[in-house]
Each structure stands twice: as C-alpha cells, then as structure tokens.
Amino acid sequence: MGNLKDEQSRKELGDFLRSRRRKADPKKSGLINSGNEVSRRRIQGLRREEVAQLSGVSLTWYTWLEQGRDINVSRQVLGGIARALSLDAVERSHLFRLAGEVPPATAAAGDEQVAGPEIQTFLDLLDPNPAYVITRCFDVVAWNRAEAALMGGFEHLPVHERNALWLMFNAPEARELLPDWEREARWLVALLRAESAHELGSPRFIEVVSSLQKSSELFSEWWTSHDVQAFAPSVRRFRHPVVGELELHYVKLSVEGGRGLSIVSHFATPGSETARRLSTLVD
C-alpha cells in the first residue's frame, strides 16, 4: 500500500487522472462499440463510473482519488487504473510515482535492451577513452574501440556472457587486468545488489544472479551478505598486457529514455603517462 500523505502529490495525482480520463478513447475501453455512440456522448473521454468499473473499484473510492483525498492505493489498483485509461509506459510510470510507488518495469520479459546509433557514435567519439553501455543487470550492450582494446573485446563472447559481473568472476584475464580485483569484485556485487530493488521479477536479472551463483562460490558468498553500495566516480588501476600500468578515472552517465541504460567511461589525467599509453591502444 502507498499512503498519499503529501497534499501536493495527491492534488497532482487527481489532476493527472482527470486529464487522462478526459482524453481516454471510449472505444478502446470496450464499453462502446461504434462511433455513433461516441458522438452522442455529452462528455469527452470516460466517465468516472466507467473508469471505476474498468478498474474494479467503487465509484466513491475512485472519486475520492481524483479529489485528492488522503486514501490508500495499492499497486494492483494503480495497474488497473492505468489499463482502464490506456496509459502508455511514460504515463503509467508517472501515475505510480505520483502515488508514491515504484513504477513497474517498462520492458517486456525477455525484451533485449540495445543502445541506438546515436549512443554508439557518442562512444566512438570518446576514443581513446574506453567507454561502454551497461544495463541495470550489468550487461554490456555497446562499447568503443578503446574499451575493446582495454578489456580484450566482446564480439567473440556469447551475448549472455557480455556481462560485467560474469567477466569479473569467470574470465581469468580479469584477475590479471585488475590489481585490486577483490575490492573491485566486491564493489560490483554490492552495486548489483542495490540494482535488485529496481529489477525485482526481471527474468534477465534472475538469470544473471542464478548463473553467477552456480559458476562462482565467491560471488554466491558475497551476494548472500546483502551488502549494497551506490555508484561513485573514482579511480581504477589496470595492468594491461600491452601498454602496462594504467590509472584511470571513471564516471557513469544515465542514458535518458534508455530504460536503465548507463554509459561508463574511463579517462586519464590530461598530460599524464597513462594518457599517452591510452592513446596507443587505438592507434
């Protein structure tokens, strides 16, 4: 249950519901079958009683919700209202947030997350700074030449193994590449655990965690500790087999409209020896 205690949020929720109800198409609701019936209606959109009926709630309760009354509303009811009003993914997420609830995942089960051509162009422009795109499940879905040169490339890997956690625990070269492997690995597990609050019920998230628990006793041990951490920009050390020691800063940028996609980019201090070595990676 979400308790709509904030008066402004309740008012915004009521205003939003009224606006969507008036814009709803009666024919989509299944309550009206012909255009003639629509034209004879004296109101635009749906009536309150129609939304209540379609949502499976009482007219009084739905009226109170539009009026901004201080009432409890469940995720199930919010989902019913969203369906009754034929809300799209953005509108549905907005409805849940106004009600103080975490929006449901917008991606369908098994829906592959990909980075568009604009994102790939942006990654390419970041060369010679290594950069890649990850999902909330830490799947790597795009990268530039510098990242491939730093990490050894992703093209040769099966798609389900193009995952930062999978590579950390199952690719022997990761331990060779990262002098601070244990600290980095523990940190990634804590980051993945923090993301679990966003990915409850996600088939891919369940698959990632299950495969890691089966393949790595160490991951399984750290995962069950339930440690969580937030991402913070920092410095990471690499021991690259070709260019040697690298000390790289890294940041993470959210991709707007990318359904949880983020860009992670590494870069060297300008004028440093690491910067010079990085430039040779993509030559």
Report what the structure shows.
By secondary structure, the protein is α+β, with helices and mostly antiparallel strands. It is 48% helix and 13% strand. It contains 15 helices and 7 strands. The protein has a 5-stranded antiparallel beta sheet with strand order 4-3-7-6-5, sandwiched between helices. Strands 1-2 form a two-stranded antiparallel ribbon. β3 (131-134) and β4 (140-143) form a beta hairpin. α6 (75-84) packs antiparallel against α7 (89-98), α10 runs parallel beside α13 (203-215) and α13 (203-215) packs across α14 (217-223). The longest helix is centred in the N-terminal third of the chain and has 17 residues, at 7-23. It is elongated, with a radius of gyration of 24 Å. Residues 107-112 have low confidence and may be disordered.
- Rg, Å, rounded: 24 Å
The arrangement of helices and strands along the chain is EHHHHHEHHHEEHHHHHHEEEH
Helix segment count? Answer: 15
> What characteristic shape results from the CA principal axes?
elongated
Binned, the helix content reads 40-55%
Overall pLDDT confidence: 87
Structural class: alpha+beta
- Lateral strand order in the biggest sheet: 4-3-7-6-5
